[in-house]
Design a protein that fits this description.
The chain has 6 helices and 18 strands. The protein has about 290 residues and is α/β, with parallel strands linked by helices. A hairpin with a 2-residue loop joins strand 13 and strand 14. The longest helix has 19 residues. The radius of gyration is 29 Å and the shape is elongated. The C terminus is likely disordered.
């Protein structure tokens, strides 16, 4: 009869111990419960959830309407799903030991910059004007009525943007958040024989470029012809709808992944295109 070394016994016992501890220490939010309540106070419903999940809730009584009547039915669902049914996205949750702490939800701070852009000399509304912020890497283009609207997640001030259009001088200004503004841009005072017009890059002149690039995307590329940035990667569904938004035409990527099609300034590494990728410059390597 072979004897089992003491070390093997110890390893087996420790593994069993670890498995038991892991089950006990399972994250509270992923524990599954089944519950049916009808017009019960919210405080009691939370108590039921805690009993089903074998944990306790902790929260500020001023944060939650404890006397609100609640009807709810869940079957073999996680605690997180159940709380989502109850509160939506109003709260966040922190696990401390066997307590689940209910906290105020994190509100995403977002501001809107909007208004009209006018030609300073004629007073006419200026279309296809680029409004962008290099720091936050967000951009948009004014429509046929000179109107623009840009959403930014950061409310910190100042909100500084650059306004650009071919034939006009670039303007950098600070814009107030959540207010409609009027911006005037001045035509450049240059001699006609000094103007060299290159309406589209090579990629934009191809059949793909003419077919899939909107008028506003092409205008963005022309307006920002001197602004380029190198970034690690791009992920895009279609031209203009991806990780770089309307600034994709100004980005040189190391890796470009396009589900249907993409649009960028260049690729200096690997390009993966579902159907196509429109680029201004050549792919440097594969």
């Amino acid at each position: 009869m072979h004897s089992i070394p003491v070390r093997a016994w110890l390893v087996t016992i420790l593994c069993a111990f670890a498995c038991t501890f892991d089950l006990h220490a399972q994250q509270l939010l992923v524990r599954k419960i089944s519950l049916t309540v009808k017009r019960e106070p919210l405080s009691q419903v939370l108590q039921h959830i805690g009993e089903k999940g074998d944990f306790y809730f902790s929260y500020n009584s001023n944060l939650i309407p404890r006397d609100s009547l609640v009807s709810l039915q869940v079957s073999n669902q996680t605690v997180q799903y159940t709380l989502q049914r109850l509160f939506g996205n109003r709260f966040s949750y922190k696990e401390t030991g066997n307590y689940l702490i209910i906290q105020p939800g994190k509100v995403e701070r977002q501001s809107t910059i909007s208004g009209y852009i006018l030609d300073d000399e004629t007073g006419e509304k200026a279309d296809l004007v680029s409004i962008y912020d290099k720091t936050r890497f967000v951009a948009t283009v004014s429509n046929d009525q000179g109107y623009f609207k840009l959403r930014v997640k950061d409310r910190s001030v100042p909100l500084s943007f650059t306004v650009s259009k071919i034939g006009y001088g670039d303007t950098t200004l600070t814009l107030p958040a959540n207010q409609e503004v009027t911006i005037r841009i001045k035509p450049k005072a240059i001699l006609l024989d000094e103007v060299t017009i290159n309406p589209n890059s090579r990629g934009e002149r191809t059949w793909l470029g003419r077919t899939f690039l909107s008028r506003r995307l092409r205008a963005q590329s022309q307006n920002l012809s001197r602004f380029f940035v190198n970034l690690p990667y791009q992920i895009a569904l279609t031209p203009g709808l991806g990780s770089h938004g309307r600034l994709s035409s100004q980005v040189v990527n190391k890796v470009s992944v396009n589900l249907l099609g993409g649009y960028n300034a260049g690729v200096q590494g690997v390009e993966i295109a579902g159907v196509f990728n429109i680029i201004k410059n050549d792919v440097r390597s594969v």
